[in-house]
Structure formats: C-alpha cells, structure tokens
Design goal:
Keywords: Membrane, Transmembrane, Transmembrane helix. It holds the Pfam family EamA. It is found in: Membrane. This protein has 14 helices and two strands; from the N terminus they run E-H-H-H-H-H-H-H-H-H-H-H-H-H-H-E. By secondary structure, it is mainly α. It has one domain. Helix 2 packs antiparallel against helix 10, helix 5 packs parallel to helix 13 and helix 9 packs antiparallel against helix 10. The longest helix is centred in the middle third of the chain and has 27 residues.
C-alpha cells in the first residue's frame, strides 16, 4: 500500500473496524480480501497508464483529492470540536499517507509494479520486528531481506536492471507505510468514526499538491483523463477500503494479514496483464520470499488466547503488526 496505498493497502481498517473475535475466516470474507487486493493493484496499474499525461505526482493529487472529497462528503467530520492533539495526529497521518502514495507512484513509474509492492512490504515487516522483538518476526525480516538481496543481484547482473531512483522512491514509500500504520492507529484511538481518515486524506492532498499541481490541472481540464483518475480513486481507494473494512469485521486479524500478504503476487499479475511487465524467474522468486515473510509475520503475531487489554501506549504499539497495516483504507495503500 495500502494502502491509500496502492499500496500497499488500503485505509487503515484499524481506524474504523474492530477485528472479528472468531478464529476462522468465512468464504465471503476471503472473497472480500481478494477483491480488495485485486481492486487496489489493478487501480495502481491503471494509475501508471496516466503518468505520461499527468505525471506520477499529478495522479497522486487527483487520486487522494477525489477520494478525500468523496469521504468528507460521506463522513462530515466534526472538525470544530477536535483538540490540538487530534489535529496533530490527523496531520501526521495525512503526511504519512502522502508519502506512501506519492513515493509509491513515483516508484512504479520507474520499476515494475510487482517488484515495487514487494519492496514496499519491508516497511510493515521491519516495523513488526522492531515493535514485537519476536524471533519469528526477525526471521521474517531476514527472509524478506534475502528476497531484496536477490533483486539486487539480479539487477546488477541481469539484462533488465532496476532503476536505482525508483528503488529509492519505493524504500521511502515503505518507510511512509510504517509511519502510516503507527499514525493511523493513533488516529483510530483519538478520532471517532472515519472522520480522521477523511481529513488525513485532505492533508495528504495538500502535502503533494506542490509537486503534482501542474499534472492535476491537466487532468481536471480533460474530461477523459479526469474520468480515468476518478476510476483510479475508486479502484485504488474507495473500493479496497470498503472491502477491507467489511472483511475485518468477519475474520481475525492474523488471517486478514495472511491474505493481504498476497498483494505482491496480485500486483505482479496486474503489471503483466495491463502494463505488459514480465518479471522473470529471479524477481518472481524474490517476490515469493517477501510474500512468505509477510505470511510468516502475520501467523507469528496471531493471538494465542484471551488477554487483558491495557490502555497504555506501549500495548497499542505492540498491537501494530503487519496485518494491522491497512489503516483506514483499507483505502491503502499506498498505492
């Protein structure tokens, strides 16, 4: 994500939905997650087709801006009653969202979609290892790092090297995703409903506006491009957020995390079908290693049994595992 993140992910479901208490996922909830992943990544692939006309930052402005307008209209947040602490949380959430989406789109303008999503997963994986300090999480990060090393070697000796600027952008997106997880959880605690997400998207739009204004103006004045941008916002933000929100109410978080770990595979498929991006053997193996690491992290952090909830910030931090990554997008990623 995901984002908004195409990215990864999706809005933070953690902001607006409570995980289901049951330990199994129904077929309908699995379909909801698969639908979310598919919508998010195909939305990212559609966004990439607009880069030539609007630029990656212009597309980011339109995607965030259109989704923000729709969400503000639906939620009508009571911002006049917010405290400075609430506004600070929303502002940080919006900045993280802007970085996650903007840097991710800048990355997929230069490197394949599936590869970018796989690298971006380093953000939540490293965050989980830092917060939990479990051996299993560290092993999962090492597994993902092995995948990244494989990408690096393949890029150096292969016929189709990765653009180093694109790699830097997606690493910034990964760091922003980690920040998105933490800040979305804070907003979920401090701001009731989805109003915090709506205003964070407004902040995110304003944050990327200086880089994307020229492209956004072109998009707003061309009905065809505006329609495609609106479709991107629908596929990459509104639909994934809604589906993830519904899924989290029907399944436990660790199952949610396992299913969301399939995003790099779906992204690679979307890149192949829509953008004609072929990954090759080694990049495919690297993506599989990242998927395995994400699945392992989700399983390692599943609840072991009933436990008392503490209202301390430390406990809230330890709750931030990769499967809680879809903050309110559930409208992600980043992406």
């Amino acid at each position: 994500m995901a984002s908004l993140n195409d990215g990864p992910s999706t809005a933070s479901s953690a902001v607006t939905a409570s995980p289901a208490a049951n330990s199994h996922a129904s077929p309908s909830s699995v379909l909801l997650i698969l639908g979310s992943c598919t919508s998010l990544q195909f939305g990212a692939a559609l966004a990439a087709q607009l880069f030539d006309d609007l630029g990656s930052w212009g597309v980011t402005v339109l995607r965030l801006g259109l989704a923000a307008v729709a969400l503000v209209a639906v939620t009508r947040p009571s911002i006049r009653r917010w405290t400075r602490r609430q506004w600070l949380g929303v502002a940080l959430f919006g900045l993280a969202m802007a970085g996650m989406n903007g840097f991710f789109y800048a990355a997929i303008a230069r490197i394949p979609l599936g590869t970018a999503v796989a690298i971006e997963f380093l953000g939540p994986l490293v965050l989980a290892a830092v917060l939990s300090r479990k051996r299993a999480d560290i092993v999962c990060v090492a597994l993902a790092a092995a995948g990244m090393a494989l990408l690096g070697v393949e890029s150096l000796v292969g016929d189709d090297p990765l653009d180093p600027v694109g790699v830097c952008f997606v690493l910034l997106a990964a760091a922003s995703w980690a920040g998105y997880i933490v800040t979305s959880a804070r907003v979920g605690q401090r701001v009731p409903g989805a109003g915090g997400l709506a205003m964070a998207m407004v902040v995110g739009t304003l944050a990327v506006l200086p880089m994307g204004l020229p492209g956004a103006v072109v998009g707003l004045t061309d009905p065809h491009l505006l329609g495609l941008a609106a479709l991107t916002a629908l596929l990459a933000s509104i639909i994934p957020y809604s589906l993830e929100f519904a899924a989290l109410r029907r399944m436990p978080r660790h199952v949610f995390g396992v299913l969301m770990s399939l995003e790099p595979v779906v992204a690679a498929l979307a890149g192949w079908l829509i953008l004609d991006q072929r990954l090759g053997l080694w990049r495919s193996v690297a993506i599989c290693l990242v998927v395995a690491a994400s699945v392992g992290a989700a399983i390692a952090n599943r609840p072991r049994g009933p436990r008392r909830r503490q209202n301390s910030a430390a406990d809230d931090d330890h709750d931030l595992t990769p499967d809680a990554r879809t903050p309110t997008p559930a409208l992600p990623d980043p992406r």
